What does this fold into?
Amino acid sequence: MNYLIVGNSAAAVGAIEAIRAADHDGRITLLAAEPDHTYSRPLISYLLAGKVAGERMSYRPADFYEAHGVEAHLGEEVARVDPAARAVTTAAGHRFEYDRLLLATGGKPFVPPIAGLDTGGVFTFTQWDDVRRIESHLAEHAVRDAVVLGGGMIGLKAAEALMARGLKVTIVELADRLLSTTLDAEAGAILVEALRRRDAAVCLQTTVDRVLSRGGMIQGVHLTNDFEIYCQMLVVAIGVVPNVAFLAGSGIATRRGIVVDERMRTSAEDVYAAGDVVEADDVLLGEKRPIPILPLAYRQGFVAGRNMAGLDECYHGGMAMNSIEICDVPTISIGRTTVCDNCSDEGCEVLVRRDAKQGIYKKVVLREGRMVGVILVGEIDNAGIFAGLIERQLNVEALKPLLLSSEFGLLSLDSEYRKHMVSGPGIEV
It folds into this structure.
């Protein structure tokens, strides 16, 4: 069997490990646009901040490819997929044939049409190479002020890394709050205050419409509210979109991402897809959509690899889960979190606990007695329990008085709950 994998992150690693566990002899070839050995993308902000060294970026050991019998072609970007010929062609013109193909190309930065983006000193922030380019710019230029366009997870971690490098940072976000897809207004406001205490500026409900430059180098940005911000660096970190452009003309079905079934199969025979590039099942929303989370990417890749190797395994879906700590304020959001407080039209009940003195904010969203979302700010110890209750869709009506308490924990659950939450040899519930 001739396996071909396009991509080099968590989904690709999951597929390799699954294939090799089931097929010790098949040929595995990997193509990746990036030149680096597989690494953990969430660590790039810590790398830029100087908190993690390059040798600690690896997602798997240095001998991973060799140990799993993988022929890795790094720095080889795929430009075309031809399912009828069972082959892919790279940008360099190299052709690779396959019996079974996995597409794990992840996401690419979303960059809006902004005048002057081709000016020096403008960067994205999703790959190791982005860190290298930013570090080179910092070494070559006297950078004191930076603007980060985007108040989501990527933008906030980029801003925090630049602050750790001693820069004055301004975050520009089009929405009315930070982390607008995962946090509500009150939770977002806590992060704004935390950033401002660290001397960062936050501009909400506006965006950059023009980059100001002189001599081919950025001098500042102009905002849609007619403000101008002086800076020597702009990081465009609005978010990512599934990387599917190379599939044009392939006949493989895509919407926002590649459409897959429960076995991670695409619309083309013997072509599978996994990770941030796919639209897979969201168990809470009951629809297919991209959920760009590393653990889900690995799980999807593992399921795809098992099926590519001739086994039969299903991916049972996932849900949105985001964890981020900004300026020493930890936050976790799981599931549906952005419904409004007065949401009877959605059939939801919202429980909220506020403790401004302790910097704690908790919000639980219930529907028909079952938890469908949670926001935790400042106190996140029980996130795993909440995730389990949401995933298993257990009725928590009887637990409502306890859910938001600081004392709530696994032992707060009676045995009927605990047996659903904890199981395994030697575990007494």
